[in-house]
């Protein structure tokens, strides 16, 4: 079996993901990179060989003999880059979020449908062991019929990761409800087996301010700097910030389930917690794949019972994002070779963006309820049959 020739668009912070596709002699190898930053070319050559193609010209990249490509560029370029690959007939791994507008997502879905293209979305949380175990338990009937779902996202490095660069500006990402929330909204939809149909939200920028902008030595030194605390003490942030640092949204899903999502960028801890309540029990995660991560299930009557009735302990995983990154890359490569159904879904990725966009619209219009537009049934049918 000849190796698939894989290209990469954007070799930056998520470049480590593409490393899992470099398996010379085992089915795939990285052979090309497109990035306007020539320093990225050098890093790519050092990682994958001096003979790889490296270019700052997208048209030149598209003319290479590629079997597939990863789009790992900044969010506001996802639509442009994925559309170019689909137009060239190249199967696409598109990092989340799919695009920064609902309309952009719909253009991508339509392009894939019309061209018979293969579009794969990088919602790697669907491959995280704790999420998959929760999905398995819920689908098995462990809590009866799901009726309520909550997600609390404690974004402990919010100032560092999202208020120091382009993420802090609406024109580049719409809202952190979309950029950061796309993962959680997709997981809520997946665990509940349905998509948001109506959203109401509120939010504000309550801690970070443009006054925290200015020159500073880069804080990133290869590991998280936990000494950058408290949040109001951070400097070197983006003075053009106009996104919220705390957001809360409630949703009614198409199947009637009520769900909520809360996101805070100035909390001291960094993890996310999902709670699903059904007609016969409740399930909740503690930890996101770190050592000691557990899932607890309550299915008997109690007063206070912190440990629940059943506990599932998850073993330590290797690979980025709790072992999810190598798994999602393996699924993408299988999809390129064979097609067929995948655990991630372009349609689901679109609904995650649409819910985030609806949330941003609601919170910026006095918490007015906003309907989430549905996907064209013909487009949905194309991906269902893939």
Automatic annotation (TrEMBL):
GO molecular function (one): nucleotide binding
Domain of life (superkingdom): Bacteria
Chain ranges of the Gfo/Idh/MocA-like oxidoreductase N-terminal domain: 5-123
Annotated InterPro entries: Gfo/Idh/MocA-like_OxRdtase_N, Gfo/Idh/MocA_oxidoreduct, GFO_IDH_MocA-like_dom, NAD(P)-bd_dom_sf
Domain (GFO/IDH/MocA-like oxidoreductase): residue spans on this chain: 131-284
SUPFAM superfamilies: Glyceraldehyde-3-phosphate dehydrogenase-like, C-terminal domain, NAD(P)-binding Rossmann-fold domains
PANTHER family found in the cross-reference section: CONSERVED EXPRESSED OXIDOREDUCTASE (EUROFUNG), OXIDOREDUCTASE
Name of the molecule in the record: Predicted dehydrogenase
Organism: Actinopolymorpha singaporensis
């Amino acid at each position: 079996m000849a190796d698939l020739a894989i290209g990469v668009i954007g070799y930056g912070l998520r470049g480590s993901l593409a490393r899992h596709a470099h398996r010379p002699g085992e089915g795939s190898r990285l052979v090309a990179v497109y990035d306007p930053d020539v320093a990225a070319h050098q890093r790519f050559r050092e990682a994958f060989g001096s003979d790889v193609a490296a270019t700052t010209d997208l048209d030149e990249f598209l003319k290479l003999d590629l079997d597939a490509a990863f789009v790992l560029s900044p969010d506001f370029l996802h639509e442009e880059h994925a559309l170019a690959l689909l137009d060239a007939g190249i199967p696409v791994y598109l990092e989340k979020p799919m695009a920064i507008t609902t309309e952009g997502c719909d253009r991508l879905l339509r392009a894939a449908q019309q061209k018979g293209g293969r579009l794969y979305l990088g919602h790697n949380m669907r491959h995280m062991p704790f999420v998959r175990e929760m999905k398995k338990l819920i689908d098995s009937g462990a809590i009866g019929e799901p009726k309520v779902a909550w997600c609390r996202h404690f974004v402990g490095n919010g100032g560092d990761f999202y208020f120091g660069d382009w993420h802090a500006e609406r024109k580049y990402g719409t809202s952190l409800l979309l950029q950061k929330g796309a993962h959680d909204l997709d997981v809520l939809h997946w665990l509940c087996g349905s998509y948001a149909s109506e959203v109401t939200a509120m939010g504000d920028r309550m801690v970070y301010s443009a006054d925290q902008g200015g020159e500073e030595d880069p804080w990133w030194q290869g590991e998280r700097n936990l000494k950058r605390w408290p949040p109001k003490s951070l400097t070197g942030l983006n003075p053009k910030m106009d996104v919220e640092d705390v957001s809360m949204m409630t949703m009614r899903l198409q199947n009637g389930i009520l769900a909520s999502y809360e996101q805070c960028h100035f909390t001291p801890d960094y993890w996310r917690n999902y709670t699903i309540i059904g007609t016969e029990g409740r399930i909740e995660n503690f930890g996101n794949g770190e050592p000691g991560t557990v899932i607890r299930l309550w299915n008997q009557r109690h007063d206070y019972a912190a440990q629940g009735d059943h506990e599932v302990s998850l073993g330590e995983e290797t690979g980025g994002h709790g072992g999810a990154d190598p798994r999602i890359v393996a699924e993408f490569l299988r999809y390129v070779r064979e097609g067929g159904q995948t655990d991630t879904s372009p349609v689901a990725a679109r609904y995650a963006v649409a819910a985030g966009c609806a949330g941003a619209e609601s919170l910026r219009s006095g918490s007015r309820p906003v309907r989430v537009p549905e996907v064209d049934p013909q487009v949905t049918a194309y991906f269902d049959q893939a």
